[in-house]
Specification:
- This protein has 522 residues and is mainly alpha-helical.
- The protein has a domain at 282-503.
- It has helices at residues 9-27, 35-51, 73-92, 96-99, 104-123, 127-145, 152-183, 188-200, 205-229, 237-244, 247-271, 289-309, 314-334, 340-368, 383-386, 388-402, 408-423, 426-454, 468-486, 488-499, and strands at residues 62-64, 69-71, 509-510.
- A three-stranded mixed β-sheet has the order 2-1-3.
Amino acid sequence: MLSGYDIFLPVVWLLVAAGIVLLIDLFSEDADRQAMPVFFTALGGVLLSFVSLNPYWDARPVLVMRGAMLIDQFAAYLVTAILTGTAVSMFASISYVRRIGISFTDFCCTLLLAATGMVLLVVSNDLIMLFLSIELLSFAVYVLTGLRGNSSKSAEGAMKYFVMGAMASGVMVMGMAALYGVTGEVALRPLGEQLVEVFRNSPDASGGDARYMATLGMGSVLIAFAFKVGAVPFHSWVPDAYEGAPTTVTGFMAVAVKAAAFGALIRIAVTVFPDVPLHGQFSGNFGWATYALWALSAMSMILGNWFAISQRNIKRMLAYSSIAHSGYLLMGLAAAGGRTEAYAAVLFYLLTYTLMTSGAFAMLVYASSHGKDVEEIDDLRGLAWKKPAVGICLAIFMFSLAGIPLTGGFMGKYFVFSQAVYAGGPFLSLAIIGIGTSIVGSYYYLRVVAVTYFKEADDKPMHGREDWGIKFAISVTVFGTVALGVFPQMFYDGAKSSVKQLREEAPMVVSAPVKPPEVVAK
């Protein structure tokens, strides 16, 4: 039998590791010698956090803190993706962050705090916990983006991300206040039940006002999450933040933040957005929000791929690519219609995206370890002939991002697109847009492969210390990307199992509430 306190273990291990990392830095004077203890301490916290998830894969959902936190198989799946992205970033950063003038201790500690906020976000079950978790992860990611203090691009990207993130947080608070004012609830499922009643009531004067306020609240929350996942038109921070941040931080932002934000958005969409059918072809289980999700998905796919084509800076190219992938994921969410298979397709795509994008940024770190940082796509020319194994790995990541068969990216797009086709109606047109933009997007991914194989390399040999951590990160992500493409059904079935509880009204395993002190009348 699980204890209500077991839900905190994944978070506790991350925070304990962050505290020990700070103690190591406090009592050690040699920065070079403390790097390995710091790394293994941080990695140990991530591994213990992952191991502590094991009881929840087959258990009933656990609800604690008066309903503020809920951990189920859905949350466990997302936490696995978040911890995977965190571990890959750590391995890729062992020597990279020190080489660019960043304290490895500062990096690991802030990374663990960001991962803590992400884990809390995917287990949050009320509005207050959602907001606190988002702020914890956001401030940590702001700091990570600006860690490279001697870079004007890093400072610019961090400031832009911070200012726009603060505006998004304000919009979210406004939306949450509106929802609470209409329903008097902060817990997600009771909030959703109250919203259903609001939209089903007759549209008299008071009911109309309540509908307008509820619509304002739902729209504001959706806008805030669209900012977090980098969806158009709330994407302008993404290219500057991705370009300015250290490469390993960019990889972490691209995968872990997106996985956490999409996980929270799926939970909110399923439990909060009212299940009220609309008149017309856009009828769906998300009510009017289906319009918004359709538009966000279409704009992100079209503009993300369009702007990526013209980029010569590889980090900006991957930034716009990330926007396009947000569009693919939003397509699966918009077309879900309450079906377990559709949510599973989104989760499978998130796991695939985590591995292939982490690997792509790890490749940039590897290419940078022998000289200057990789900025332009042409900086990779001839890399495949200097390092044949590296060229093959880079090609696999680019093929997966493009959706070439026998890779995880292809299967992820197949599952998401097939669910949109199955939903029919306007979602069929959304699937056609997704297929068309994927074909167009293949150009800039294959251009990277062409530069590494078909452009003449310079005469300078690749010198420099090869980091075992970056080699391990690349090996794991390559293996995972290929495995998801060759044996997708096993992972897809796991995703289906993890989301089956989302719409079920099964009894929760609730921890015993704390009784308030009795007031004795005198």
